Amino acid sequence: MPVLTSPFAQLDLIRQPDQPNEPLQAFDAADEYLLNHLAEQKLPAATRVLVLNDSFGALAISLQGQFALVTSGDSCLGSLALEKNLVRNGRPFDAITLLPASQRWDGLFERVLIRVPKTLALLEEQLIRLQGHLAPGAEVVAGAMVKHLPRAAGDLLEKYIGPVSATLAVKKARLLTARAEPRAAFTSPYPSRYRLDQPAVELLNHANVFCREGLDIGTRAFLPHLPKGLGSARVADLGCGNGVLGIVSALGNPDAHYTLVDESYMAVQSAAENWQAALGSREVTVRADDGLAGQAPQSLDVVLCNPPFHQAQVVGDFLAWRMFQQAREALVVGGALYIVGNRHLGYHNKLARLFRGVEQVAATPKFVILKARK
């Protein structure tokens, strides 16, 4: 695999989750551009630098020991990648701690490096949160590959930070630079909320939650066909997002025991708050994790899942396939995985390779709901 070379370090980096013969590398030209830009400024080691949305640790590990560094993002997989890549490059696994995006940072920063996220609502929330955390004359630099850099990203920097200048493209990457200027205080529009009719539940959604403004059509197709009569079953909502599948299932299965898990810290925060609003003090486990990797084998009776088909800008079914494998490992013999998926993705055939029986529970013109029994 290629090595990330910058004025700060040479790093051998891997992505998360691991894939055999990984076709993609764990950094890109935007990471290189951000690091080179920072190096040109020859800043003192005491400079406080905030790194946001560093997917696999390329920026943070390069800058570790160079500055007073804080790194924050919304990906549990990103946190795992950071630990693994620290060790891979001869550094203690806990040399840097990723601060979840659901938590606030402290103090003032002279420099902020941002990888522009796919969800611009996350970028907006992060820029709003920078209020009161930028030292006088602080510089905020956002980087991305040109094909993933919408005009709106510059508009947000202009609105919340200060005048923006764009660099020339280098290796198909570009930087947007804003120098902090006084701004009137902004109130964040996040979290957003929407209501379900059946059951009557209001759902809160922090900035990086999938389908933040309303129920996605796959989940809408799934909800009427969630399993009933589960008794005291142990149920997991895998890739829970705002928790809607687990919460609706729990309302219909008052004696079942639930675990809600997602790799997004903001999703987990949303799910925990929504559970409490809908179900009060009813016991639940809500955690950020690499899917069901942290779940004990044969510890679940039912898994509910609306699997993702992308990781950031990378589209594919590798995450869904991995979730199916994790579900099989976590389920007891006779346990069942219920999923919703687009018809064209062919999940029936994929599940048949892992489970002894796969049946179609329901279908719409676009989606199928499948039950796979271990």
The gist of it:
The protein is of the alpha/beta class and 374 residues long.
- The radius of gyration computed from the alpha-carbon positions, rounded to a whole number of angstroms, is 22 Å
Helices and strands, in order, run as EEHEHEHEEHEHEEEEHEHEHEEEEHEHEE
- Which percent range fits the helix content? 25-40%
CATH class of the largest domain: Alpha Beta
The shape, in one word, is globular
Number of domains: 2
Largest sheet: 7 strands, mixed
CATH topology of the largest domain: Rossmann fold
| Overall mean confidence score, pLDDT | 93
Q: How would you classify the helix and strand content by structural class? A: alpha/beta
Strand content: 25-35%
Domain Methyltransferase small: 201-371
EC number: 2.1.1.174
Family: Belongs to the methyltransferase superfamily. RlmG family.
InterPro entries: DNA_methylase_N6_adenine_CS (IPR002052), RLMG (IPR017237), RlmG_N (IPR058679), RsmC/RlmG (IPR046977), SAM-dependent_MTases_sf (IPR029063), Small_mtfrase_dom (IPR007848)
What does this structure look like?
The chain has 374 residues and is of the alpha/beta class. The chain has two domains: 4-179, 3-Layer(aba) Sandwich (Rossmann fold); 192-373, 3-Layer(aba) Sandwich (Rossmann fold). Helices cover 27% and strands 29% of the residues. The strands form five sheets. A seven-stranded mixed sheet has the order 5-4-3-6-7-9-8, sandwiched between helices. The longest helix is centred in the C-terminal third of the chain and has 15 residues, at 265-279. The chain is globular. The relative contact order is 0.10. The model is unreliable at 310-316 (pLDDT under 50). Its EC number is 2.1.1.174. Specifically methylates the guanine in position 1835 (m2G1835) of 23S rRNA.
